[in-house]
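Here is the promised in-class demo. Please do not try to memorize the tokens; focus on the logic of going from shape to residues.
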């Protein structure tokens, strides 16, 4: 039922300057695969093969990665290195990639709204590539969508002193790890946060979110916050928050990026 995904990928990635001056944050490698690779693989595992990107200036490397390179493939043909391209070539062959450019950086809500022409009137997933997840979280959320038919946000417990970095929900648990959202606050002050259940970069959204985003007034920093539109959805109908099963690395931070690199090196490379 969820056939499309949207990757907001227009940000500048300033925490990783000077590397991100010319390399998109989404293309920073975790050992030998860029962040975007992991997100696309997660989509495919969830049965999602129509993938749209909201990009900006200096993001052409994403398009180049998701396209064949005949010269390179010719050079390594028949060698042991040929298998290193098998997974990305499978992505290229099985998925459809479309792109739209976000002309101004006006927040996640604005980025999602910019992607409306790529999505149309369909429920869709949103993937923030710098939240690297293991455990097929989108697959879990797609199953939930089949049951509840509403927007879903992925959440995890974070230390209380870190809630000001996230959107935070308040909700009633209606099933194991499933919460009916009652309130949602973007980057609250630590002493005013409704809980320590933080929204991470995986969403399933119903298409009426676009109309709500068009009506959403700019919030903190003049940005259009996705959480504001989701709260309106929750008040008028239903939004579910899901405490997912799996690992998540905040690769938007240097610490999280190094932790992810070490984890996947130990898991996939060490001793091989």
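The designed amino acids, position by position:
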């Amino acid at each position: 039922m969820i056939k499309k995904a949207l990757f907001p990928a227009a940000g500048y990635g300033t925490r990783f300057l000077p590397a991100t001056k010319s390399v998109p944050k989404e293309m920073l490698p975790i050992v030998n695969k860029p962040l975007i690779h992991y997100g696309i693989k997660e989509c495919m595992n969830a049965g999602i093969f129509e993938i749209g990107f909201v990009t900006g200036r200096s993001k052409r490397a994403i398009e180049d990665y998701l396209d064949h390179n005949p010269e390179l493939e010719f050079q390594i043909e028949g060698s042991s290195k040929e298998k290193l391209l098998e997974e990305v070539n499978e992505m290229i062959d099985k998925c459809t990639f479309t792109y739209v450019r976000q002309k101004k950086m006006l927040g996640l809500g604005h980025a999602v709204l910019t992607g409306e022409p790529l999505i149309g009137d369909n429920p869709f997933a949103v993937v923030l590539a710098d939240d690297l997840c293991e455990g097929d979280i989108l697959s879990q959320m797609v199953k939930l969508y089949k049951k509840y038919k509403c927007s879903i946000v992925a959440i995890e417990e974070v230390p209380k002193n870190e809630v000001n970095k996230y959107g935070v929900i308040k909700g009633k648990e209606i099933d194991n790890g499933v919460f009916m959202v009652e309130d949602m606050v973007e980057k609250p002050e630590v002493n005013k946060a409704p809980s320590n259940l933080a929204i991470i970069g995986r969403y399933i959204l119903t298409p009426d979110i676009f109309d709500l985003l068009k009506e959403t007034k700019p919030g903190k920093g003049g940005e259009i916050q996705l959480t504001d539109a989701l709260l309106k959805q929750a008040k008028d109908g239903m939004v579910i928050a899901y405490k997912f099963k799996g690992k998540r690395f905040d690769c938007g931070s240097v610490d999280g990026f190094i932790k992810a690199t070490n984890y996947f090196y130990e898991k996939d490379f060490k001793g091989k």
